[in-house]
Amino acid sequence: MGTSVHYPIPLHRSPAYATVIDLPHTDAAADQVLSLPIHPGLTTTQINDVAQAVTTLAHAAERAA
């Protein structure tokens, strides 16, 4: 079980879809969004682990602000 960034480069910036369009919200999302493990096969323990990790990061961000 892990986390990852599914689209670290916005699609409009990738060579296959490269355009000269400016999509600032898409660029910002690519810098901020994190994909969490979520699927029907997660156990209760895994769900709790994910929730605890998110809570820990949220508290750390609050303290840093």
Could you give a quick summary of the protein structure above?
With 65 residues, this protein is mostly helical.
Give structural attributes.
mainly alpha, 65 residues
Q: If helices are DSSP runs of H or I spanning 4 or more residues, what is the number of helices?
A: 2
Number of strands: 0
Structural class: mainly alpha
Roughly what fraction of the amino acids lie in strands? under 5%
Radius of gyration: 16 Å
The biggest sheet, with number of strands, parallel, antiparallel or mixed sense and barrel status, is: none
**N- to C-terminal separation?**
29 Å
Can you tell me the residue ranges where pLDDT is under 50 for at least 5 consecutive residues? none
Order of helices and strands: HH
Helix content: 40-55%
Overall pLDDT, averaged? Answer: 85
Shape: flat
